[in-house]
Amino acid sequence: MKKTYCIFLILVLSVLNNYIFSEIFSAYYDITVNIVESEKFRNNNISEKAITNAAEIASNEKCTLSDILTPLYVFNNCSISNFSETYKDIKNMKKQFVFSHPYEYKECSKALAAIYNDIKFFPVLKSNSSDYWVSYDNSYGADRNYNGKYKHEGIDIMAENNVSGYYPVISVTDGVVENMGWLEKGGYRVGIRSNSSGYFYYAHLSSYAGIKKGDKIKAGTLLGYMGDTGYGKVEGTSGNFAVHLHFGIYIATKNYSELSVNPYTVLKYLETKTLAADY
Fold first, then answer.
1. Cβ proximity of 51 and 269 under 8 Å
2. Confidence class of residue 29 from pLDDT cuts 50, 70 and 90?
3. Residue 265 has pLDDT above 60, yes or no
4. Do residues 217 and 118 touch, judged by C-beta distance below 8 A?
5. Least confident range of 30-34, 72-76, 83-87, 166-170
């Protein structure tokens, strides 16, 4: 009888221990339902230093940037300033998330792949013969006003030389020209769908280069020239603001076909990958 009681007690304690461990484990590797649509996730708070570090590991380990960034981003509550984890640590982290929240982890990975896996070059070419360059700050989410107030869904890259048609704009990624033409708010714009399904948006162009809708292009392909078109129902409206490129990145989620994310640190990272040309 005593032996039976001891066995029963051991079994109860074992079940209780497994339950407690499971609860702690789940809390430690938790992912909020549909986190990819949250403002916190979309703020894309990953420093250029962290992206550079992740890119180096990805290159050495023959994997993608999102393979490195996703476990770290989720584990650190959607913020990475830098990290010291090894590739082995990151793989183990991923394994725990996939075990505890497979669907949500997959959605996070897909979103970060769309943002990061295809980026190669800064979207504006630098001049070989001029000191004029561009500037930008983190204006994502700032208030804008045209036909009513709205939130800014990208980053404005401002021209030091405020001349429409001066700066060449190139594609940040390989992909397909999905959209071209006039938009009342964005003026002449180009939308590129990257190989990992990110949508890269270039607006307020003065003119287009030799591309057309449906073209498959490579990163670095000339799309057009920076301008000041937009804020007008009449095609060709210009001069309502300073010359600049509005650069946006959009992802597909459960409830949205195109949901904006903050491109600021993507641009900061790509500054070290700026191409130059004679103009």
1. yes
2. confident
3. yes
4. no
5. 30-34
Amino acid in the structure at residue 243: V
Half-sphere exposure of 252 (CA within 13 A, CB side): 8
CA distance 117 to 208: 26
Could you tell me how far CA 151 lies from the centroid of its own chain?
Answer: 17
C-alpha angle 210/214/217, rounded to 5°? 60
What is the token pair recorded at 247? Answer: 């650069």
Q: Output the CA–CA distances (angstroms, integers) from residue 89 to 4, 13, 68, 116, in the order listed.
A: 43, 31, 10, 21
Query: pTM, whole model, 2 decimals?
Result: 0.90
